[in-house]
Amino acid sequence: MEYNQKFIPEGWNDVNRAFSMQELNLAAINGNIMQAKVTRCDSNYNLYLDLGNNLTGIIPREEIEALNVDETGFPKPNICTSKINKFVQFKVKDISKKDTVILSRKAVGKEAIKWMKNDLKEGMIVYGIVKNIRPYGAFVEIGGGIVGLVHIEDISVARIKSPYERFKIGQKIKIVIKSIDRKTNRVILSYKEMYGTWEDNIKDFKEGMTVTGIARETEKRKNGIFVELKPNLIGLADYKENIEYGSNLEVYIKRIIPEKKKVKLLIIDSKKPYIK
Fold first, then answer.
1. 94 lies in a domain?
2. Considering only CA atoms, which of 121, 108, 120, 142 is closest in space to residue 8?
3. Which helix (H) or strand (E) holds 180?
4. Among residues 30, 62, 194, 274, which one has the fewest Cβ atoms lying within 10 Å of its Cβ?
5. Are residues 190 and 207 in the same domain?
6. The domain spanning residue 57 has which CATH number?
């Protein structure tokens, strides 16, 4: 299910535009959400933004985060330094000084949390940007600073050893809302739906074809090798010695069984994976 989301991820539109004082005044009155790039983080962990037209925006430390604060109620120092040269969203808080505008990212975050709790539903497809990758999954921002986790098993039907096999940091994607814990503000995401269903993927394959695939894992007791034909399409090949994970395989499609969503393969040739 597609969804026209209210908030978009920070940096989705990566144009560093200049704002006029008139625009900033209107934004302060109307509560508009704006975006600019962070130029530095000072010793007190305040953020400085380039607003163009010789205007500087400052996000005080206490206005950086709506979530992820330390025991003092302030964002952790690494939150500040990690934003340098990144786009952040904000609302205009105060324009009393001539060339300096006080901004709030926290205000955007609080509004985004309400959006997450009230408007987001399981099964919705939203825009996201991959912000961090860990062995167990990837963290994806889906708008207004809200970050969700896609576990490695929800990245694709084909089992992978590392999320880096599918994602890179900064990658712009569409992703599915899998679940929302509205008490803890935790969002769990899923990406495998974006590769299409088994029925969608099998259309490109016929019995008797010779195609290429990737070795993913060996079936227990060495009864076979699972081969990725597409991220959401796996076939089972007869077991063959010395096939490594990630090897490029040339396989023959022996049989397609739609009612069981199974593909039976025969390995013809293999090439070991290239490791940098």
1. yes
2. 142
3. strand 172-181
4. 274
5. no
6. 2.40.50.140
